């Protein structure tokens, strides 16, 4: 893979994380090809990817579940990319913090995840053709303070 494409794919992955954290779900959906798939686990029942969402509308609905938590922060901690003439693939490691507030108490539910991605080069640039999320571990712990979302 040439360095320019690798940087572009890395930017795509980091932009997705930032848009989700900023709750700009429509913009995040725009990073997917029209016929893309997003395959997610169903925690706590399954940490393996078992629920498939196809196309922008289904992906948007799946992402809207993130709005139920007070705040998120996705930290990309590792990324590798490979490519053929037709397709690029990525394996992305991430720690996704999901902060919830209940009865005046804040809890951090941290998912240690792996994204297995396929990317396609479109007229609009590189986009996700598929994104499959696997949760390797879930940690839960109390948090002293949380900055409000949107600030």
Distance between the termini: 39 Å
Task: Classify the helix fraction into a percent range.
Answer: 10-25%
Largest sheet: 6 strands, mixed
User: What is the fold-level CATH name, i.e. the topology?
Assistant: Nuclear Transport Factor 2, Chain: A
Portion in beta strands: over 45%
Proper CATH architecture: Roll
Task: Tally the beta strands.
Answer: 6
Poorly predicted runs are none
Number of helices: 3
Secondary-structure-based class equals alpha+beta
Give the SSE string.
HHEEHEEEE
Summed up, the domain count is 1
Bulk shape: globular
Strand order across the largest sheet: 2-1-6-5-4-3
Question: Cα-atom Rg, whole angstroms?
Answer: 16 Å
Mean model confidence by pLDDT? 95
Q: What this model shows, in words?
A:
- With 151 residues, this protein is α+β, with helices and mostly antiparallel strands.
- The chain has one domain: Nuclear Transport Factor 2, Chain: A.
- It contains 3 helices and 6 strands; from the N terminus they run ααββαββββ.
- The chain has helices at 3-21, 25-29, 55-63, and strands at 32-42, 46-54, 71-83, 88-102, 105-122, 125-143.
- The protein has a 6-stranded mixed beta sheet with strand order 2-1-6-5-4-3.
- It is globular and about 55 Å long.
- It starts with a helix and ends in an 8-residue tail after the last strand.
- 18% of the residues are buried.
- The mean pLDDT is 95.
């Amino acid at each position: 893979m040439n360095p320019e494409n690798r940087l572009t794919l890395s930017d795509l992955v980091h932009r997705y994380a930032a848009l989700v954290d900023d709750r700009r779900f429509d913009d995040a959906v725009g990073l997917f090809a029209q016929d893309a798939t997003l395959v997610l686990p169903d925690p706590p029942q399954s940490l393996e990817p078992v629920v498939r969402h196809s196309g922008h509308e289904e992906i948007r609905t799946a992402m809207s579940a993130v709005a139920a938590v007070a705040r998120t922060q996705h930290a990309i901690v590792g990324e590798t990319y490979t490519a053929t003439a037709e397709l690029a693939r990525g394996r992305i490691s991430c720690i996704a913090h999901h902060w919830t507030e209940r009865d005046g108490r804040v809890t951090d539910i941290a998912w240690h995840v792996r994204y297995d991605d396929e990317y396609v080069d479109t007229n609009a640039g590189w986009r996700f053709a598929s994104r499959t999320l696997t949760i390797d571990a879930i940690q839960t712990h109390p948090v002293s303070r949380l900055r409000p979302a949107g600030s």
